[in-house]
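Final paragraph of the annual report: two paired records, presented back to back.
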Amino acid sequence: MAIKKSQIYSTLWSACDALRGSMDASQYKDYVLILLFVKYLSDKGDDPKTLFKIPDGCRFSDFVSLKQDKDIGEKINKKLEAIKEANPWFLGKITLPNFNDPAKLGKGKDMVDMLSKLIGVFEDSNLDFSKNRSADDDILGDAYEYLMKNFAAQSGKSKGQFYTPSEVSRTMAAILHLDEFTSAQTSIYDMACGSGSLLLRALAETPNGATIYGQEKDNATASLAILNMLLHGVQVAYIEQGDTLNSPRFTSAGKLETFDVCIANPPFSTKSWLGAAGADDTYGRWTSDLLPPAKCGDYAFLLHLITSMKPETGRGACILPHGVLFRGNAEQTIRTKLVQRGVIEGIIGLPPNIFFGTGIPACIIVLNKKGAVARKGIFFIDAKDGFMKDGAKNRLRQQDMRRIIDTWNARRDVPHYARFVSMDEIEKNDYNLNIPRYIAAVDKEITQDIHAHLFGGLPKHDIDRMQPYWSACPTLRQALFSPLEGTNDYFTLRPSIDALSKTIAEEPSFISQKERYLASIDQWSDKMRPQFNALKTGIAPKQLIAPWGELLKQQVAADKSLVDHYDAYGRLMDYWDEILQDDCYLISRDGWTLTLNRSDKKKPTYEDFSCDLLPVGIVLETYFQSETVAIRDLQEKSEQMKAQLDQMIADRLEQEECSEDDEDEVKSITAEVKKSAKYKAVEKQKKENDKQLKAQIATLTDAVAAKYDSLTESEIKPLVIERKWLATLRQKLESEMEQVGQQMTADITALAERYAQTLPEIDSEVAKLETKVNEYLKQMGF
């Protein structure tokens, strides 16, 4: 049976529960991930393609044999050291965690129990990595990323910086157009690589692979990066440990080595960064006349990155806090020089609170030495508003990433979102690159119309602000608003507020707009059916979803729907994450075969059955409608008779005025009622009904199990494709149009309520209330 991605994620994360109470997440991740690696090595050990050597006595089964051993911590350490020594090329630089540390893992029996429990998690039969490919589609590599994200989220401030959110990594890799690098000799470098997520995402974007180089200051985190590479199938990667600014590891003949692509998410605003490198840097990154502030290392990292880019052709991207765009003094001088050199190609503002370890907003500075001399300006994107809440953090959604990438590739101005700014304009602003200087935010401030407050009516300019609605639905505006007599500047709302939603839903141009949108979904579905039917074993799921999403986005955009095509795209991508990718992984492994899970109950019924690829509900609805209806009727009858019996007892207790606290009297009366002929007659009917119900459930249970066993591929495909995938997606995509209608109703309602009462009407009402209050006060003697 194939491993579902969601299944492996939850199983691995449960491993963390074994250690969570004893240490910080930034520490216990090291223990979990090294055991994950051992399990992976053992499962892949007989694979002729793997270059790893597993010493005798060091397979995962040998770790399992240590469970409840009083010296388990010490023996695990010895086995890990043996694995490391047997694979010096791969593991020589790894710092192994100490499994015999009582300060972190407890003493005596506590340590034994904890480590035994942790090893036990990896014994799960679902964690068989011998059946998984080692590529960008690899479930194991993605599971590693999932664990890293969760570890980072729980590591607390300043301890989660080893991980760049995958959404940001993917966006950075895409905007660098790495698909243009077709040579496997392409070099990719990250000066502050953390756990290596940025490097791996960049590697995944190159069509024929590349050589990876990374440096990380923290020793344990550098080890994580090496493991990350290996678990993603990258057996050649140069990861070095050390302080990049003061002790760069990639040098040659007294100069920094240069690379085709340089990417980084360095620690923000590092204090006291200047050490051995000195004010006049040996490698020419900065000089005493052009020196980043000693209390803030942002520009030191940026200058290192730029110097590490190949002359004339190097490109890169660096995540830094917004302060680098506008801070003065030494940073302004450096910023001016970089802009004048033309090395900054673009700036992308990101939402706040999306990085682990800091909540401040950041930006991506896109760098390119190619064409730098002739560069006419900088392309700005303000993507600060595109995100969703994800626990305590914010997260870029699929549609947010796609919008950034598409806008960057098109290099077209988009109101309130993107703009190309000329060098002349930047110079006039003293080389201040703060995004709000160049891209105006959407004006969300409510303008109060004094005339409307005094004399009534809805201002024309407020209605005009809803022009996207009227452009898409040409006759809707006239159906909703009529001009006040004697003026074309103020209007009244034709329907009542209570009838507004119904009026919009039934208006012909809105109906036409909705039908056009649904037609675009149908057209996309028609194009997808052949592709869905062609899925088979060996497919690479990650290579499928990108064109599927692009096709939907283009289809909805072409039909000029009120629904934003990026929101429709986001619905598909969310469903991919929730269900569709797991289904594709199952098909990739097992084809269109079904595994019916019958639960662990002694006598399970069809209600206890589950099937990942083809849900039981679809089979019941397709083949056993009459049977399920009959069972539901019998269940309802049973519930009604049970309620009838309970009511007989309740009525008698009420008649006798029996208190619930008098348990003996309650028991006596209850027993007396149960002996009555009326009670026995109903009870007999219920037993006969329940017997019939039990028999029908047993019959249906056998029938459902038999149906799953007999279903052929030609029968399974339409059920999964039509009844599961396309039906669910249509429902999700339709909800986007419903949200448009709800938002339109909310916007118009807010406008109508804003001017519902004129000031004279309010004054009159206040005067009446004041008169009443005075009368009451007079009656009270005041």
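The closing record of the year follows.
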Amino acid sequence: MGKITCLIPYEEISHVIESTFAEINDGNWELEIVLAAGVQCIAERHFVTDVILARGATAAALKQMPISAPVIDFSVSGYDTMRAIQSCQKQFGKKRIGVVGSHDMVYGAKSIEELMDVQVEVVEVKDETDAEPNIKKLMSRGIDTIIGGVMSTLIARRLGLNAVFIETGREAVYQALIEAKRVVQVRRKEQERSEQFRAILNYSSVGIIAINAFGVISLVNTDAEKLLGIRNSAIGCDIDRALPELGLKAVLSSGERDSQEVKTVNGLQLAINKVPIIVDEKTVGAVATFQPTSTIQELERKIRRKLHCHGLVAKSTFGDVVGDSPVLKHAIATAREFSKVFSNVLISGETGTGKELFAQSIHNASSRAKGPFVAINCAALPESLLESELFGYTDGAFTGATRGGKMGLFELAHHGTILLDEISEMSPTLQGRLLRVLQEREIMRLGDDRVVPIDVRIIAATNRVLDKMIEKGTFRDDLYYRLDTLRLALAPLRERQEDIMPLVRHFLGACCLRSGKPPLDISRSAEALLISYSWPGNVRELRNVLERLVVLSKSEVISDFDVSAVLPKSTEISSRPSTEALAGKSILRGSNVAQSGDFNREVLLGVLERTDFHYGRAAAMLGISRTTLWRKLKQHDLPALNGTIETIETIETI
């Protein structure tokens, strides 16, 4: 564990030290005993040890020297002083005795007077130079008997006085050795912590500067030196003089942290975090950590490139699915249940219905959320390239293969999820290989002769009817039944018209924010046109239309004219409009009037109000002709625009 060096003033004490050391040594300690009487004996000596034991003036002198090892005193105990006084009385029969020595040696000696029926005069000496004058002072007071250390007794005898040396007893040796071991152990732990702390500071990727309660720099790490062009010599300087731009003293006065502040210091733009050091509810210092904003930006770019180069991140959750229709809520509830298990999922739906959105949401709601999410469009790559992307290849597997080979998407998705979008477009050959992956949960790279086990959840998506493809022989039925463990069918937008306006508001807000435009409103007649359109491209088409409206809008309200301008010229009106959504859910709930065409007065009024009494659009929303609308209005004694009914009546007469 360590080495203990004992400096002794007389040889007789060595056997006491050796025997006491043997009692407490556990085999991990080394003992060195050096005979050194007086300070001059140790002045030129170089000590290679973990701790030094000495007594009296020798110990005091050692503590003033530039040595790395700690110094422990052989403390003179009360027992040692009493034994020395008793020896004086026996040898010289004196009742008046002078005690001369260092502070630790003479401390408490005066209190022995009452115990031993003796008068004690105490004189403290700091070094050899003041020992003789102090002893002469005792002589002038009539004291001719001295007890003390080696130096004091030698001087006393030279001056013709009686002298008794205070020997160090076993009790003091034992306590000193125990203390020496404790100091070494504590010092070792402190050194380990210090080295650990230093390594953390110097190998940290950020600059660190700390100040004490007075605003004086107490710590500067290597990165701070490099970034700010300062040196360790800055330690001890006032922070406001060295680096006023940091504003670190403000944290001392406020006692509150200041995070993510961007400042220019010495011409370098830094992201700075400042925190107070609080002990017992008092601010005793502050620490600033900082790094260049360019470093943060570059790190972010690297992370993004690494994670997104293969699409390894699922960005969407069920919270990103917009809509209030029962059919959509049912799909979300079903998908949430699917996320709780690891079975294969087949998502079907027309293009633009959000198949990948649901696939990502299932992944993020599952226990695999921390794993990779890999998506590939099976229709986007030719068969040969798709095979190498899915399964990977070895070095030299084919002409143009990357040196060292390449990991396939199935391997990249290990412990995660892979989405095979447009699975219907996969060739029969690849369908056979995929079937084996589903069965064995292992893959073989192109050009390799070994299999690689994988743990991947497979989600397949298609916008085609696989049953019909199986009948035509273009899709394997065995693969279909493997994929179709859990099925999720997403309804087209025309079948869930209640979701159109929530989606419109969502996309309008997002597009306005992205393009830097103020929020836009939309008129009722424009809403009616959007709701009545059949949306063959589903949500994707709706999003594109809303983006065009935002870009082309000239006013704060989108009108029906704006909508008509961006919708395809052959605008298709939904064959089964949601009259309930248009005229108010409370009017038609529980009835079949929309399907039967038996529109009551409230329904007709509701539709007219929504279209600002535009009869052409009102008729289109209700799925009837303008002539039929006129008849219904006349039947319920509702007003028409000037000339409209008369014109229709004239046309019918002709």
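The longest helix spans residues 170-202. This concludes the annual technical report; the extension proposal builds directly on these records.
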